[in-house]
Amino acid sequence: MKIRILILSALLMLAGYSAAGQQIVESIVAVVGNEVIYLSDIEGQVMQMKAERDPAPVEELRCRVLEDLMVQKLFLDQAKIDSIEVSPDNVEADLNSRLTEYIRRAGSEQALETYFNKSMAEIKKDLREMLTDQYIVQETQSTIAKNITVTPDEIKKYYNSIPKDSLPLVPRKVEFSIISVEPPDMEESKAEVRRKLLDLRSRIINGESFSTLAVLYSEDPGTASKGGELGYVTRGELAKPYAEAAWSLKKGAVSKIVETEFGFHIIQLIDRKGELVNSRHILMRPKLTAEQTEWAILKLDSIANLVRIDSLTFEKAAMRFSSDKATRVNGGKMVQKNPSDRVTWFTLDELPREINLVVRDMKLGEISEPFRTTDEKGNSLYVIVRLDNEIPPHRIDMQEDYNYLSQAALNDKQGKAYQDWIAQKVKKTYIRISDDFRGCGFHYSGWLE
Asked: What number of helices (H) and strands (E) belong to the chain?
């Protein structure tokens, strides 16, 4: 069973305020073993669910949240019995990541403190406790499920249990290989970008607004409309040269030109708080000249023709000519960023738009004409692709989608094991529920016995 733990709403409930800013009168709603659930624990999550437009009546939501919390407390109670502990380092890493995101959303540490009416130290303490509980629950669940496996017969039985008209539709998947080339003489294009940034830097130092110039000239689509502002981020979230430059600046100062894998930047420090920095930047990327574009197309045409007449395999051509280091070592084979059981398979929606438009109409084994696309860092490049394999769109199938069905069957079996464990644990655990909630229609029987 999935345990709902809403960190932001939990912070709100720990602040002890309703959405209208009124103090919630604290009272104990339930006791599970040695664990206590307070009214504020429930109201905070209900407020969050209503803010997210959950259509269920408030009383139904309160009952649902209470049962989720009681189930969570069952796992925490068992963890104490089994002496389950979690790594403080993992909790701290998650805490810092989440806190950075909350500060980014709030706008600043001060804004976050004002919103929750707590100091950063108190917010960190509350968040640390909740994350620790979350990790403990996950570890306890892992202990329950660690020896659960599924046999081929169980996978087949799971598949046959799904009504045929309810089988999920699997979209078309493709495997493809790619070759990209980097034109020569890019230094002149880079020099042109540096000249433009130096001119903008001079204008800023002479009094013009960095934000205004970022809106007008920055080539970062994610920040240009916001005056180039990135918001509060940690050093690890930034490209290393950018981070080094940002951390070396004084507030309001403008950096020299900084080169990263995304292009060339000038940076202005807005604010720095501990491990967080807020900066704005203007990003520019070198442009391919008409001559460089023509060179890239002719080069790729030449490579494709060599492969088509069997003078060279696509794999060897990729290893010899491609400028993409990530795919070159694979003979051009494109691989998912987040490896799974089939790391080389992509749905069309997972592909960059330009590659999607080309691959969708290709035949197996066909090599495309050269075309322009954009890499993950936003840089333009010319490529050719070959469609290596495809799986047409289809209803989920035992042969084609065995790995997916195997995981789904395992998840289903683990879910039933969790439910059986919870039902048994309820019978063995001391549980007391406030009279105000005894009218709830709970999923698990035994809470009120």
From this structure: 15, 13
Compute the distance between CA of residue 25 and CA of residue 13 in angstroms, rounded to an integer: 11
Determine phi and psi for 67, rounding to 5 degrees: -65, -40
Domain with 220 in it: what CATH number?
A: 3.10.50.40
Please indicate, yes or no, whether residues 79 and 228 belong to a single structural domain of this protein.
no
Q: What is the mean pLDDT of residues 418-436?
A: 93
CA 132 from centroid of its chain's CA atoms? 21
pTM over 0.85: no
> Do 379 and 332 share a structural domain?
yes
Average pLDDT for 43-71:
89
Render pLDDT for 83-112 as a digit per residue (tens, 0 to 9): 998 988 888 888 887 887 787 777 777 888
Do residues 27 and 138 share a domain?
A: yes
Say yes or no: 32 and 142 in one domain.
Answer: yes
**How high is the pLDDT of residue 260?**
92
**Lookup: tokens for 119:** 């100091």
Q: Is the pLDDT of residue 298 over 70?
A: yes
Predicted local confidence at residue 72, as pLDDT: 94
130: nearest Cα among 185, 161, 91, 169: 91
In a domain, 398, yes or no: no
Is there a domain that residue 443 lies in? no
In this structure, the chain runs to a length of: 449
According to the model, what pLDDT value does residue 155 have? 95
Please state the φ and ψ torsions of residue 399, each to the nearest 5 degrees: -80, -50
Same domain, 263 and 312: no
SS3 325: helix
Count of structural domains within the chain: 3
Q: Which of 264, 284, 304 is the last residue of a domain?
A: 284
pLDDT at 14: 44
Q: How crowded is the C-beta side of 203, counted as CA atoms within 13 Å?
A: 16
Compute the distance between CA of residue 99 and CA of residue 104 in angstroms, rounded to an integer. Answer: 8
The C-alpha angle 67, 69, 74, rounded to 5 degrees, equals 95
Residue 384, token pair as written in the block: 């050719």
Expressed as residue numbers, the domain containing 254 is 186-284
